[in-house]
Design goal:
The protein has 247 residues and is mainly α. The protein has two domains: 87 residues; 128 residues, no CATH class. The chain is built from 13 helices and no strands. Helix 3 runs antiparallel to helix 11, helix 7 packs across helix 11 and helix 11 crosses helix 13. The termini are far apart. The relative contact order is 0.10. The model has no long low-confidence stretch (mean pLDDT 81).
């Protein structure tokens, strides 16, 4: 994501080469995340197209280079075999059912092997992914020691929403790769996850980007607080001046 942001600002061959190898590295570790990142990368350069011929040519060169490089690395062939093996809703249902049978599983009766079932599970899956584990579910010490972190995470939600709204209104083009990747990964895990413990651990893959938005929201709240202090200070000074004039 950092390399994408750098390439949006200025074309550097070093950043482009590192981007390709980073994508290949992700493919080697988490193939499903690779495709989400690829959508975010391609989409960010497409929406970055403008009326400037320079920017259009730059983004075209980047997309062509990334596409040819990944093809050379065998991404297309691997994509076909992996989607055939893991990409079906039936396979996702089998994996989710196994997770749901564990001690901290949830929604064991939910079936995501159909599109309707996958859509139905989204709300409950999203709640567990983003806010679990819940304090009333803690049944052992290992689960209990996560509670301070979970409560702190909940307390950050207002800053997240504030930062998200500001980013969409003012920095959407630059933030597009981060936003689209976070959304895609959140939706995928909301459908796939059937275990609170696994969802809690995999949430960190999304949190690392959401903390950026939380930082934005925190800064906005601090600025609003400072502005209120300045306004109160100015009002007090005006009141003091009026009192002195009247006296």
């Amino acid at each position: 994501m950092t390399l994408v942001l750098q390439l949006q600002e200025k074309f550097r061959i070093t950043s482009l080469v590192l981007l390709v190898f980073s994508l290949f590295g992700i493919l080697s570790l988490r193939f499903y995340i690779f495709y989400m990142v690829l959508v975010a990368v391609v989409g960010s350069f497409i929406i970055g197209l403008s009326n400037s011929t320079k920017f259009i040519l730059r983004n075209t060169v980047i997309l062509v280079f990334v596409g040819i490089s990944l093809t050379y690395l065998g991404v297309g062939q691997r994509a076909g075999s992996e989607f055939k093996r893991f990409g079906s809703l039936e396979e996702m249902q089998r994996s989710r059912a196994d997770l749901a049978k564990a001690g901290s599983g949830f929604g064991e009766d939910i079936d995501v092997s159909t599109t309707e079932g996958a859509v139905t599970v989204l709300p409950i899956g999203f709640v567990y992914l983003m806010f679990g584990p819940f304090p009333w579910q803690a049944s052992n010490l290992r689960q209990l020691i996560t509670m301070p972190e979970v409560l702190l995470w909940w307390a950050m939600m207002p800053f997240l929403f504030t930062g998200l709204i500001y980013t969409v209104k003012n920095r959407l083009r630059k933030a597009f790769p981060i936003l689209i990747f976070s959304i895609l990964l959140t939706l995928a895990y909301s459908i796939f996850q059937g275990n609170v413990g696994t969802a809690y651990r995999q949430r960190t893959q999304i949190q690392v980007f959401l903390f950026v938005l939380i930082g934005v929201g925190w800064t906005i709240k601090q600025e609003e607080r400072e502005n209120k202090k300045l306004i109160r200070g100015a009002a007090k000074m005006q009141l003091d001046d009026r009192i002195r004039v009247q006296s």
